[in-house]
Here is the input.
Amino acid sequence: MLFTEPSFLFLFLPLLLGTYFLFPSQVRNGLLAAASIVFYSWDEPAFTLVLLASIGLNYLWGLALESAKDSRQRKGTLAIGVAANLGVLGFFKYAGFLVDSLNPLLETLGAPTLSDPRVELPLGISFFTFQAMSYLIDVYRGSFPAQKNALDLTLYISFFPQLIAGPIVRYKEIASQIRNRVVSHRLFADGVRRFVFGLGKKVLIANTLAGCVDRIFELPASEITFTLAWVAMAGYALQIYFDFSGYSDMAIGLGKMFGFKIPENFNHPYIARSITEFWRRWHMTLSTWFRDYVYIPLGGNRIRNTRTYLNLSAVFLLCGLWHGASWNFIVWGIFHGVLLSVERAGLSRWLETAPRFLAHIYTLLFLLIGWVFFRAETLPYAMNLLQVMFGLTQGGGTHLLVRDCLGTDALIAMLAGCFLATPIYHWSRAKLADWIKDLPDRNGRARRLQLAMHGESLVVFVILGLALIWISALTYSPFIYFRF
Here is the structure.
């Protein structure tokens, strides 16, 4: 079920909210857990058992970790639990890729080839598997005791707002909220506002740009001109940001409606002045997951430089594989790992002293190069597109598609995207709040605060109205990160 579907907006969510606040607090966790399973099974009935099996496995393994008698037994129990999680993820996500990669080699050697397992990828498996593994690792580390209540662990792993595409929530970030939380009027209103802004990001900006980007990528690489290539990649950079950050905003907003404070996942990544800074701002819950559970255990920054560079490359190779089972994602991950290593080797010092606009151009340029591998369906297509972008080959098409793609809607979406990708709106909102707070006249301050709130409410209603109009007019458009 999509957050942008009428069945969610006008049936599932209103019904759940109504029953949630009617029920006593003692049964609300059970209601949310059941609703989350229904939410998942709406589109993925065949794989609901995979989700439930993951929950049951990690519940039992958490208890086993806590009852282990010594360090050796604890390590062995953790290793089996993590291996089981990775085994399930690997089977569903990478079995077909491994077969496709091995068969050409087997044919060359004259050996029998492997049959294609044709395994369909369960929705959100990368996200709920990583949450489950973080739970086991933190229980092993003694960060908190294992959860004895199976229902509470079910809610943690399956909580519907962030089940399918994140943010990736650590158990320690939400454990106290599962046990005890309060929904205030302000928190609920803030959740509604955040959800509507996320809906607007997805429907009004990301979906509008997707139409242009998809039309260009449907062309053979030989027919894409220099202009088309750069329009496609600029559009895709904005599309993927507003698509994914829009989902995160909706997840955070939904969490607030039910009393949960889900961690932020984006912090205006396109204002970064280095790739290192970009990864501190983009998909922050995934970046910190790899930092805490892979990079630091490998030695982090406490080892010699050569080993650090290898660790960075290994972490981002895994990051690329996490995003998808294809050589494009592997190259994308290695590409970012190399860039981070080069920056750590000394480039970052130049970037810190260079003019801001040069550092910003450098970052955006290499991000766009990386997004080519992320968006292209095959590695040869990506390489051909890069050659066109940098004038090494000349596409044989025309520029007519640029005119067709960049109509009024797409231009407005691109301009709005460029504006909202910066912190200007949030900065202006904070400045307005400070100005109202500093006014000497209490009555006048109250009136201005009320006026500001009414103004923001009007913006929310306008965004919601436009989004609903777009939803009713447009066809199915899943979130990009659903396929990961």
Summary: Residues 190 and 253 are 7 Å apart (CA to CA). DSSP finds 20 helices and no strands in the chain. The radius of gyration is 24 Å. The chain has two domains: 6-181, 187-420.
